[in-house]
Amino acid sequence: MAQPFKHPQSGVFYIRRKVPPELQAVLGREYKKTLKTREPGEAKLRFAMAWAEAERVFQQARAGVQRAQSLGYRDAQLLAQQWAQSVSAEMDPHGPLR
Q1: Helices in 7-90 by DSSP H: which ranges?
Q2: What is the pLDDT of residues 39-92, one digit of tens each?
Q3: Residue 31's closest CA among 61, 65, 69, 68?
Q4: Would the pTM of this model clear 0.85, i.e. be above it?
Q5: Residue whose C-alpha is closest to residue 19's, from 49, 67, 63, 62
Q6: String of b and e for 26-50 (b: at least 16 CB within 10 Å)?
Q7: Beta bridge partners of residue 19, listed in sequence order
Q8: How many Å is the maximal CA-CA distance in the chain?
């Protein structure tokens, strides 16, 4: 059964999960987030919520990977153009971002 990981030096609990192989290019090999507690009982409660959050992150990544694979060249070009326009709208006329 999965359980919170206690950092050996700080004593703070974490959730650590191996990322599924198909998502490692997007998310890395390990999903790790702090539970922001040193109390074992509280860590167990937060761990359950963090596990559900990790599943949601994995589902969103899967959807993004599938969507990216279904984009054609023209679609990617339009998305890049829209992104460039939104970034340039935020830029200061003198160059750096605000």
Answers
A1: 24-27, 40-70, 73-90
A2: 999 999 999 999 999 999 999 888 887 666 666 777 778 878 887 877 776 665
A3: 61
A4: no
A5: 62
A6: ebeeebeeebebeeeeebeebbeeb
A7: none
A8: 56
